[in-house]
Amino acid sequence: MFYEELKKRRESAGISLDQISNKIKVNKSILEAFEVGDFSKLPETYVRLFLKTYANELGANPENILREYESLNGKTPEKKMSEKNSEEPSFLSPQNGPVVNGNKKRNIAAITIILVILVFLISVLKQVLMEEEKKKPASIDIMVKELPEPVEEADTTEIGPAMIVDEEALPEIVPEILSLVMITNDTCWVRVVTDEKDTTEANYLPNIRREWKAEKLFDVRVGRPTNVRLTLNNKPLGPIGNTGIPTRLIISKDGIVRSTLLRR
Q1: 205-261 pLDDT per residue, tens
Q2: Separation CA 182–CA 211 (nearest Å)
Q3: Residue 44's CATH number
Q4: Most CB contacts within 10 A, which of 55, 127, 237, 258?
Q5: If you compute the radius of gyration of the chain from its CA atoms, what whole number of angstroms results?
Q6: H/E element holding 210?
Q7: Exposed, middle or buried, 189 (CB in 10 Å: 0-12/13-18/19+)?
Q8: DSSP classification of residue 151
């Protein structure tokens, strides 16, 4: 059945009911009922609206889902047209009291449905604006003082006439490569600058593993620090910030050498 297919799609995508409930703003108990084929908790108008939204979120064809729902409930196109015609009052019949009262009830129901749809659209628009806001890099009002370059001491060892340096015998100096690995616990915006030249920036979904390599330095900015775990050369860096407070980290071979709270 179509509701079983929706459940399989959600589970195969690794999305929990809580996550999709928060995303599409539909109560979790309603979605649980949908996935077992129980559509009696809501009027048909709401069922169709929420089924279409749920199908779109999971990448299913909403028109096919609605047709299967109508077939399940015996709502063929001919039957729907017959019911619609039977509900419309005849202009030849007298407009007595009960018919007028029925029209009032239908008007109230229509207004209620419109208000619910407006609230749903406003919540969806708000969610979209919040997602767009997360994509913007946090503005930083911080002055970073550059560290002076280390001064290397000159080698004063004198080479006598009998000392011969075999250049091929000298070991090749290979710079130490730093490996920074991130694993996300939940959705989070992360920006990483490696060696002050290469930049990557993205919104990462839960349970994502990403690795960066550098010779000297990582400049990391995290929108939600508690949603990620960082390890440097297989060594966990521990807690990196507070819930909901964007944080900037400067990471070298010695670990986190600077941690700064950012202002949006």
Answers
A1: 999 999 999 999 999 999 998 999 999 999 999 998 887 789 999 999 999 999 998
A2: 6
A3: 1.10.260.40
A4: 55
A5: 31
A6: strand 209-214
A7: buried
A8: P
